[in-house]
C-alpha cells in the first residue's frame, strides 16, 4: 500500500478491488474435500489474506479515509468445462502446489464430481457465490 501511495500523485484517486474471504465457497470446498481424500491438509481459507475484510484497514493506514463499494453476486456456469478450469485455478489459493504429486488425481476427482453434478441436474447452472469490494481513496 505504501508503494501504491508513493507512485500516486497527490489529489489522484486509487481503487483496489478484492474478493470476499469466502468467495466461491462451493467450488473451493469441492477442491478441499478431494485434496483431503488424498491426505493433504490445504488451507481452509484462501492462502492470500488480503480480502474484503482486511483491505479497508490496510488502505486506511496509508491513505486515510477509504470508501467501500460492496458487490455481492455469483458465478454461473452452464457447462462443466469452465467450472473445471475455475476449480483448477483455485488449487494454488487452496495450497495445492503445482508440483504436488496429487495434483492430477485431485483434478481428475474434481472433474468427475462436476460432470456428475451436471448429469444429475440437466439444464441447471452451477452457481457459486462470489462477492467483492472496490475500495477507493484520495491520495493526500
Based on secondary structure, the structural category is alpha+beta
Give the rounded overall mean pLDDT: 92
Rounded to the nearest angstrom, the radius of gyration is 18 Å
Largest sheet: 3 strands, antiparallel
Reading the helices and strands in chain order gives HEHHEHHE
Number of helices: 5
Short summary:
This protein has 140 residues and is α+β, with helices and mostly antiparallel strands.
Could you characterize the architecture of this molecule?
The chain has a 3-stranded antiparallel beta sheet with strand order 1-3-2. Helix 2 packs across helix 4, helix 2 crosses helix 5 and helix 4 runs antiparallel to helix 5. It has 5 helices and 3 strands, in the order H-E-H-H-E-H-H-E. Helix content is 41%, strand content 22%. By secondary structure, the protein is an alpha+beta fold.
Topology summary:
Blueprint: H1 2-7, E1 13-19, H2 25-37, H3 55-63, E2 67-77, H4 80-90, H5 103-120, E3 126-138
Helix pairs in contact: 2-4, 2-5, 4-5
Features:
alpha+beta, 140 residues, elongated
Amino acid at each position: 500500500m505504501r508503494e501504491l501511495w508513493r507512485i500516486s500523485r497527490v489529489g489522484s484517486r486509487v481503487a483496489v478491488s478484492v474478493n470476499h474471504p469466502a468467495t466461491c465457497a462451493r467450488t473451493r470446498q469441492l477442491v478441499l474435500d478431494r485434496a483431503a481424500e488424498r491426505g493433504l491438509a490445504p488451507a481452509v481459507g484462501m492462502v492470500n489474506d488480503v480480502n474484503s475484510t482486511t483491505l479497508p484497514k490496510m488502505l486506511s493506514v496509508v491513505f486515510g479515509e477509504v470508501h467501500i463499494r460492496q458487490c455481492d453476486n455469483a458465478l454461473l456456469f452452464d457447462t462443466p468445462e469452465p467450472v473445471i478450469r475455475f476449480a483448477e485455478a483455485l488449487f494454488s489459493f487452496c495450497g495445492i502446489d503445482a508440483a504436488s504429486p496429487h495434483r492430477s488425481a485431485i483434478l481428475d476427482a474434481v472433474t468427475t464430481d462436476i460432470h456428475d453434478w451436471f448429469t444429475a441436474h440437466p439444464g441447471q447452472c452451477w452457481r457459486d457465490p462470489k462477492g467483492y469490494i472496490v475500495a477507493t481513496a484520495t491520495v493526500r
